[in-house]
Design a protein that fits this description.
The protein is mainly alpha-helical. 83% of the residues lie in helices and 0% in strands. The chain contains 15 helices and no strands.
Length: 410
């Protein structure tokens, strides 16, 4: 099959990723809470397992993407995503869920860094900011279309959407295999390549670049704090809703958890599309200072929204708070990719992005169990409050990156 335009392949893939994750993610949390019966600590340990896996494999797979092929790395990771979700849906046991997270963690390390580095090389760093922002919109549209499938499948069983999502990821992997070009990246010929020495040299180059640019070191600390806070929110949101609130009746009936979580997804997607479009039109992504200021404000909003969610006693106020948090988080993703890519040379781009993801995983590895233990010993509300406290330092740290950038410009 003829290779397609890189932007088109990227956007199509992102669209279907959004659709599949929309089918799977809410179902996994309902499956773990309602079918497998996990407690707050176990819920967080599920996330900790995937983050430990990411921490171990992120750098090796990132280096492979820089030395061998970013395209191959993305394709392998997508196949493994499909396998991981199929494993999780197989048997409702804590051990099986944990095993699936190992597969999913390895899968993600093959994709993270490599995917964004691949498209940056294909379209050029000067154009990639708008591509990232547009891809976020396509992801949200795909997510919107996946919600009816989640409702349809989730009303049959919480396990079914996970299995279907796994099968669909295998289809996306095949699509990438057949259509994904790689013209902007030049791999070393086999007879000229000393693979191990090149891997070590690439890793050293990434570390040296971080040392030479203090702004990247500050961003590394930011990545740790983002990891520390995010695991508690990601793993305990649905459990907090289920345990603390009576879900209002909806006119179309069906499973109330499935219906409300689907409705939340719909509202979140529309808000996210609007916020991303506003950022795309109003924010000059070529100006690093403006991007950093935007991220500083967004993380301040996330901390306030998370505190509001933790302490709301009214279902609708809690819903509003989660919509604020999720919308703000969605905007950070393309802005962070844009911001950091402008500070990284192409030859170590995937490695540096993978190192950043590894630091995020490091934060989640340590922050997750602590927050989960707070949830077991006190309450999920206390655990979510702890998560909110962990994100607050990101606001002054982004202020530091702004000062560093201004100093470099002088």
């Amino acid at each position: 099959m003829k290779k397609l335009d890189a932007k088109l392949v990227y956007w199509i893939s992102i669209f279907f990723e959004g659709m599949i994750f929309s089918i799977v993610l809410a179902a996994t949390q309902l499956y773990r809470v309602q079918t497998v019966g996990l407690n707050p600590l176990q819920l967080v340990l599920v996330g900790t397992t995937i983050e430990i896996t990411v921490f171990i494999f992120e750098i090796p797979t990132g280096i492979v993407a820089d030395v061998y092929s970013r395209r191959a790395s993305v394709i392998i990771g997508t196949f493994l995503l499909g396998i991981g979700f199929l494993v999780e849906a197989s048997i409702p046991l804590f051990g099986i869920v944990i095993s699936a997270q190992v597969i999913l963690g390895v899968a993600w390390t093959f994709i993270s860094g490599a995917h964004s580095a691949w498209i940056a090389d294909e379209v050029g760093v000067e154009n990639v900011g708008q591509v990232y922002l547009r891809s976020t919109q396509y992801r949200r549209i795909g997510s919107l279309l996946g919600i009816p499938l989640f409702v349809l499948l989730g009303n049959v069983s919480y396990r079914l959407p996970i299995a279907v999502g796994g099968a669909l990821f295998l289809c996306v992997a095949l699509f990438r295999l057949l259509t994904m070009p790689e013209d902007g990246f030049q791999t070393t010929l086999n007879e000229e390549r000393d693979t191990w020495n090149e891997m070590v040299a690439t890793l050293k180059g990434g570390i040296q670049l971080a040392r030479l640019k203090p702004v990247l070191m500050t961003f590394a600390v930011i990545a740790i704090f983002v990891g520390l806070y995010s695991e508690g929110y990601d793993r305990l949101t649905e459990a907090h809703f289920i345990g603390q609130f009576n879900f209002p009746l909806l006119p179309w009936g069906g499973d109330p958890f499935v219906s409300w979580f689907a409705l939340m997804r719909v509202m979140g997607i529309f808000l996210g599309l609007g916020a991303t479009e506003l950022a795309r039109r109003r924010l000059d992504t070529s100006d690093n200072l403006k991007v950093a200021r935007a991220l500083q404000g967004i993380y301040g909003l996330i901390s306030l929204g998370l505190l509001g969610f933790a302490w709301s006693t009214n279902f609708y106020w809690a819903l509003l708070a989660t919509l604020v948090v999720d919308t703000a988080r969605g905007v950070t993703v393309p802005l962070i990719d844009t911001w950091i890519n402008k500070h990284i040379e192409s030859k170590v781009r995937a490695t540096m992005l993978s190192m950043t993801a590894q630091l995020d995983a490091f934060g989640q590895m340590f922050g997750g169990p602590i927050v989960g233990l707070v949830g077991n010993l006190r309450s999920i509300r206390a655990a979510l409050t702890a998560s909110a406290m962990l994100i607050i330092p990101v606001v002054p740290l982004y202020g530091r990156t702004i000062r560093q950038a201004k100093k470099n410009d002088q």
